[in-house]
Amino acid sequence: MSNVRPRIRLPRSARAGDVVQVRTLISHPMETGNRRDPDGNVIPRQIINRFTCEYDGKMVLDVDLGVSVAANPFMEFDVKVERAADFVFTWHDDDGSVYSETQHLELS
Amino acid sequence: MFTRRSTMALGLGAAAVTLVPLKASANIPTVEDAVADFTGGASVADEGVSVIAPEIAENGENVPVEIDAPGAVAIMVLAPGNPTPRVVDARFGEASGAPRLATRLRLGETQEVTAYAKMADGSYKRGKAEVRVTIGGCGG
Question: B83 to chain A: which residues are within 8 Å by CB?
């Protein structure tokens, strides 16, 4: 699917041992499969069905999403940071696409 | 005009129409299915899981909900009043800082958003919060 844009907010600074808050959002209609177009045809389901976040190669969060998650799925969660490392985020689309984003966290 | 054949076709069509919703709903897991799948039939304590949500949601299309489940390794969030009740399953990994997740839901009607948590010791807990929905969020 095109026009899918992930947005990620990491803390500006963190120290080793901190628990930091991460917020992510991805632009996506999360089409439920329950709606019909003006001609009465069912609009097929197309959602982000899975979201994952890894930090420093370790799993933070692995989420299965259903159709009752609002459009532009938003996730806010907590990560324990031990050192400067990459965050890797993935979003899995019903159409088989995987949108991935990597961000580096520097420690102060 | 209504010939014998067209009347029969009409009857078959009507039968098909009434069968379709039954068939569709048979594929969607109910709340009981989801709970059985998540807990494996274990008993669930009504404590230790906070569901933080607005008391009144003007727009059911986008309702912020936060689940806080200290000690949990996984959570499941249900919107029992929606056509597809199982909203989210989340597993917290070794780099997780806390078993907490905030997200945004669609709610079709007023209902009790319920979160189940699997604890590290294998026990289960749950919590819920009622959200009054002014305009439902499940579209046509």
Answer: 34
